[in-house]
């Protein structure tokens, strides 16, 4: 900083004021520009470590995820969280643990040793979990998951609202006999399975339609289970005219079942999915109408919540938007 001041012909305090963006001081634009030219010429960088010791803030945020970084459709969480942190002048340190608990604990200890100002703890899929005790030492927000005791702020997808919107979209197209293939049983207590089914049931009943529980099946979230359950539903004497699939992989299996039985999507059968896995949904023929998991918005809100400094522990459920493609139409009508 002394070298910059000497080259620019100003005091060291003036250099400090310029580099810290202090407003309201009597520093002309010409002086400010001269200081910045000297900084560039000398290749000067602020010593962030020394600055953090002096100010008591590292301007660092840790991001710890299980398999988020290696999951193509969830990568938006990291990108949007990083952008939101950067907008407020924070650098994000990202660790992908691959679900290894020992690695996770070491990573969190390493982040804490670097005096991070907070940690975003992200999960690949929505579930209730126990967080490592060390996270209690620093402000933490849980992303795409919830703590089992609701002791930390969490940002999650609105599974119930998404399930209800998906069913309502089919109802609005005139479907009255609608099947549902869930991604797990209700006994699993998996939030996506429980709340998506609850939203589906409430939409059907609110529309005054008869809820036929024999049209509700419980798979495992894979295409094979989707195919198997769809075959059974579509082989019934009074088959459904539409199927809501609990995720896009299940919907993929339902497409295969429909094709094997000679049914055309959407003329003979409308199908709607959930997750908006673009590697699947956008490339099925016809394109799959589905509910999108709001990864980007969850990433932004998670970091915003962390930086707000709130000590409360609310659950922030983010809307899952409907992504319309070509797999839904009125019964007997092409999209």
Would you kindly provide a written description of the structure presented here, covering whatever features stand out?
The chain has 12 helices and 14 strands. With 335 residues, the protein is α/β, with parallel strands linked by helices. It folds into 3 domains: 2-46, lambda repressor-like DNA-binding domains (434 Repressor (Amino-terminal Domain)), CATH 1.10.260.40; 54-152, Response regulator (Rossmann fold); 159-294, Response regulator (Rossmann fold), CATH 3.40.50. The chain has a 6-stranded parallel beta sheet with strand order 2-1-3-5-7-13, with helices on both faces. The radius of gyration is 26 Å and the shape is elongated.
What are the salient characteristics of this protein?
434 Repressor (Amino-terminal Domain), 335 residues, single chain, Rossmann fold, alpha/beta, 3 domains, six-stranded parallel sheet, 41% helix, 17% strand, 12 helices
Q: Any idea what the radius of gyration is? A: 26 Å
Distance between the termini: 66 Å
Give start-end ranges of low-pLDDT stretches: none
Number of strands: 14
* H/I helix tally: 12
Largest sheet: 6 strands, parallel
**CATH structural class of the largest domain:** Alpha Beta
Chain-averaged pLDDT: 90
Tell me, briefly, the overall form: elongated
Q: How much helix, percentage-wise, in residues?
A: 40-55%
Secondary-structure-based class equals: alpha/beta
Oligomer: single chain
Q: Strand order across the biggest sheet?
A: 2-1-3-5-7-13
CATH architecture of the largest domain: 3-Layer(aba) Sandwich
Number of separate domains: 3
Name the beta content range: 15-25%
Order of helices and strands: HHHHEHEHEEEEEHEHEHEHEHEHEE
CATH superfamily of the largest domain: Response regulator
CATH topology of the largest domain: Rossmann fold
């Amino acid at each position: 900083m002394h070298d910059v001041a000497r080259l620019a012909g100003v005091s060291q305090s003036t250099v400090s004021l310029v580099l810290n963006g202090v407003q309201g001081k009597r520093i002309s634009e010409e002086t400010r520009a001269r200081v910045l030219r000297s900084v560039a010429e000398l290749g000067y960088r602020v010593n962030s470590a020394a600055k953090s010791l002096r100010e008591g803030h590292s301007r660092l945020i840790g991001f710890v995820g299980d398999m988020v970084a290696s999951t193509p459709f969830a990568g938006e969480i990291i990108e949007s969280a990083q952008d939101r942190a950067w907008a407020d002048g924070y650098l994000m340190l990202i660790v992908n643990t691959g679900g290894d608990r020992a690695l996770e604990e070491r990573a969190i200890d390493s982040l804490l040793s670097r005096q991070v100002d907070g940690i975003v703890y992200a999960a690949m899929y929505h579930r209730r979990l126990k967080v490592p005790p060390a996270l209690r030492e620093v402000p933490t927000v849980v992303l795409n998951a919830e703590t089992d005791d609701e002791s930390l702020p969490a940002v999650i997808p609105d599974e119930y609202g998404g399930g209800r919107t998906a069913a309502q979209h089919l109802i609005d197209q005139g479907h009255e006999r609608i099947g549902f293939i869930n991604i797990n049983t209700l006994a699993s207590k998996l939030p996506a399975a429980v709340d998506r089914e609850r939203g589906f049931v409430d939409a059907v009943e609110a529309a005054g339609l008869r809820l036929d529980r024999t049209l509700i099946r419980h798979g495992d979230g894979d295409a094979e289970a989707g195919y198997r359950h769809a075959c059974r539903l579509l082989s019934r004497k009074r088959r459904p005219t539409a199927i809501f699939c609990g995720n896009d992989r299940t919907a993929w299996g339902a497409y295969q079942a429909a094709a094997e039985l000679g049914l055309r999507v959407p003329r003979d059968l409308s199908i709607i999915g959930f997750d908006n896995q673009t590697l699947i949904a956008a490339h099925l023929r016809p394109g799959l109408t589905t509910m999108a998991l709001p990864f980007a918005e969850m990433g932004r809100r998670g970091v915003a919540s962390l930086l707000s400094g709130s000590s409360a522990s609310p659950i922030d459920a983010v809307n899952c938007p409907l992504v319309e493609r070509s797999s839904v139409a009125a019964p007997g009508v092409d999209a």
